């Protein structure tokens, strides 16, 4: 594991732009890694692949300039450890609803005595340099997803979790939790309000604010609100939009306004 370039970008106040990979294609992972993103997240929760294939996707992202991250499918020490051993430089953990869950998640990403990560770094320590344990603990980033009513209620306590780098809004599950429709290009008002609350709570606690976004315009809006880490759409929503646009243009019509917010 090299130094985590994302940490330098955050420290310099840059908005970090993250790609989102849900297709089981190492080729696509390479393409995204060369597309200009600062990082690319391999999505184990809703991506169409499991842990074995995630290893190859992390390898493919590593072949380009983007920093490989992973969203785990659950708060599971074995899976999180495997993703870190495979070379993920940070973990995004879904559905973190309170401070105890946030602390549990952070512990899964850190070695003893602070955490419970088991030793066996495999791809993450290919160079077998001395000091990997301390290096990994200092460079692996931890992001807790805020995507429920409970998480909003416990937001300040979650953000104050020692060792947590940032909170990361899942606008679709949050929309469902707040009785609104998920998957839209423009977040419903309930979610828009929550997004504003999350960025100020995160910064008040001294941690970063991140979010999944439907597209570049949504990502730009959140960056304007102070979000540090934005994800302008997932691979398949981008592809579907571009494909539909090409078809519409080829048929001499105007492309429809994007309805698919991705996930
Ligand atoms: C959500 O919007 O709920 C997400 O988890 C983004 O993938
Ligand atoms: Mg979600």
Protein model, in words:
α4 links the parallel β3 (67-71) and β4. The chain is of the alpha/beta class and 263 residues long. An eight-stranded parallel β-barrel has the order 1-2-3-4-5-6-7-8, surrounded by seven helices. It has helices at 5-11, 26-33, 51-62, 77-85, 99-108, 132-139, 149-153, 155-159, 171-177, 189-205, 216-224, 235-250, and strands at residues 16-21, 39-43, 67-71, 90-93, 141-146, 166-169, 208-213, 229-232. It starts with a helix and ends in a 13-residue tail after the last helix. The chain has a single domain (5-251), classed as Alpha-Beta Barrel (TIM Barrel), CATH 3.20.20.60. It contains twelve helices and eight strands. The structure holds 3-hydroxypyruvic acid and magnesium ion. Magnesium ion (MG) is lined by residues 94, 147, 170, 172-173.
């Amino acid at each position: 594991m090299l130094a985590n370039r994302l940490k330098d970008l955050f420290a310099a106040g840059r908005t970090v732009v993250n790609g989102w990979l849900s297709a089981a294609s190492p080729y696509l992972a390479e393409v995204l890694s060369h597309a200009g993103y600062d990082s690319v997240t391999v999505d184990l929760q809703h991506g169409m692949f499991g842990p074995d294939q995630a290893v190859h996707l992390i390898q493919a992202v590593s072949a380009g300039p983007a920093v490989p991250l992973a969203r785990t499918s659950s708060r599971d020490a074995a899976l999180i450890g495997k993703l870190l051993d495979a070379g993920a430089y940070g973990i995004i953990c879904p559905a973190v609803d309170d401070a105890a869950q946030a602390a549990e998640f952070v512990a899964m990403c850190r070695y003893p005595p602070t955490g419970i990560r088991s030793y066996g770094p495999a791809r993450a320590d290919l160079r077998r340099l001395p000091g990997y344990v301390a290096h990994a603990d200092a460079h692996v980033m931890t992001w807790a997803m805020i995507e429920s009513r409970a998480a909003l209620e416990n937001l300040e306590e979650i953000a104050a979790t020692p060792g947590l780098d940032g909170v990361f809004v899942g606008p679709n599950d949050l929309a469902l939790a707040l009785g609104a429709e998920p998957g839209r290009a423009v977040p419903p008002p309930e979610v828009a309000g929550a997004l504003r609350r999350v960025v100020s709570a995160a910064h008040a606690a001294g941690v970063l604010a991140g979010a999944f976004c439907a597209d570049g315009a949504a990502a730009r809006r959140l960056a304007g609100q102070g979000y540090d880490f934005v994800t302008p759409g997932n691979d398949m929503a981008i592809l579907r939009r571009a494909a539909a646009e090409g078809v519409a243009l080829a048929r001499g019509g105007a492309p429809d306004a994007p309805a698919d917010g991705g996930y």
